[in-house]
Amino acid sequence: MITLESVSKSYSGKFGSVDALIDVSVQVERSDIFGIVGFSGAGKSTLIRMVNRLEEPDSGTILVDGDDVTAMTKKQLLNSRRNVGMVFQQFNLLETKTVFRNVAMPLMLQGKSRAEIARRVEEVLDIVELSDKRDARVSQLSGGQKQRVGIARALATEPDILLCDEATSALDPKTTEAILQLLKRINQTMGVTILLITHQMQVVQRICNKVAVMEAGRVVEQGSVIDVFGNPQSATTQEFVRTVINDQIPEAVVDLVKHDNRNARIYRLRSVGIASQSVLLAQLHRINGLEIHILAATVEQLEDTVIGLFHVQLIGSDEAIGLGEQHIDAAGITKEQVRI
User: Which end of the chain has less Cβ packing within 10 Å, N or C?
Assistant: First the structure.
């Protein structure tokens, strides 16, 4: 659906050239909700603006539904953009105009008839649950309602793709959740492919099925949300995942462990599915001469899958601990020794 292959982009400034994107490759399949996450300055906004060529790449290829966006004429690009809706962080609405007028704007620019415009505006306002605000001025709406108008406007032309540029970062947590669930429903019921950028890993956790993590213009890690959350590889990804899945041992527990002089090792265990953790712990308890303490545990649900993260302390002889390690490896659970 959306393919970026080896895309690079730099800007010239007072102090020389700045690399915004460096050899970025991303593949978004039809009906994905694909999240691009990164800190400020990572290159997220530049990347998403490449999809409809609001930014021109210095090199690389951008395919949208199989068509090379970088090779399109102005007329071809205009037609392509009609298939791509965009939702903005600051809404980008006409504050003094009515909700109806804002949503109708892209249809008016396409030269649709009044009857066609009225029909489609009513449809999308119903989708975003804002039919009762049809004649209200945008300036009278709350932030969440304004974003619903923005989503309705983006859907007005019946696009196959929705680009969301920090669509929830200006909203409070409760409103953010409502907007995320709206986007998820649009994806599931209308089949719209969603590419969103965010600096909040919670957004990715709530609705995305795939994610790419960016740092300093590069994609440092990407894959299914379950794979990336379940076993983050890069330091940046680990930092983001930590905001939703705590992988640290509480300080009070650390202090207690430090004063325990018995022969012991501590492991951080990550698994997809809670059953494997439960079976493993039962097996470890049956090893003669091995004592097991759970120092910390976190369980989170991603889509329909449970991600478990446990810190366990194995106490006993080197032989008993070695047997415990063998059981962990045999269970297919990712382990990492923690030194404190």
Answer: C
